[in-house]
Fold this sequence. Notes:
Helix content is 51%, strand content 22%. It is α+β, with helices and mostly antiparallel strands. Helix 1 packs antiparallel against helix 5.
Amino acid sequence: MVVLIVSFFVGLMLYGVGFLLTEKTAPSMMSGYQKLSAEDKRAFKLTEFVRFFRKFHFIVGGMIMVLSPLLFFFVGEDANSILIIVFPLLAYIFFIIKIKFYTPASQQLALNFALGLMIVVSLGAAVMFYRSIQPGTILVHGHSLEITGIYGKTIDYVDIEEVVLVDSIPAITLKTNGFESSTVKKGWFKTRSGEKVKLFLTDANPPYLFIQLKDGTKMFYGDDKKDVQALAVEIGRKIGK
């Protein structure tokens, strides 16, 4: 439900931005416009720009507000998360391409830089999201245990205090440094008691693999496609327990 509230707020905020700019307020609100030479100001298609700016934000903000509850209730929370991350980025790439037709030649280089930056950010966000939703796999090596993927780590067996199966994980109240979706929880989270734990959960149901390190770090691993009971036995043999 938090994702739905956040996405609706983002849509409402973008919709509201459309009201900020008018032909009367544009010259004073647009700092870049104030710095233009008199010749560039005459070349700037201000009326068309303001009209497009308002229309763009009304449409993008309105679409997010309408699509958010539809995706949340009929598709799922993850689709809603993708909407508020990917859709605005793609929309603003279109926005920058479009406003190039309204701005003078002296501003084209800055717009090209902004366009390139937005494309890089969008690709980076897509790659990060894809990596985040990939399940972390436990690999049992000769002298160490490796948890693959983002937020994963390699642990020497001598650093492991305990490995047991548990039927539940502590109640989680906050994500401090990690990724969370409806099916995946990876990274650092804070429990109701204020304790920090590291989670590697993918479509997980009990039992969970609980690993406690000698430095006090607590980790929970779960994946319905993996035999965590067999993992617990194998790791137990490696650490001599």
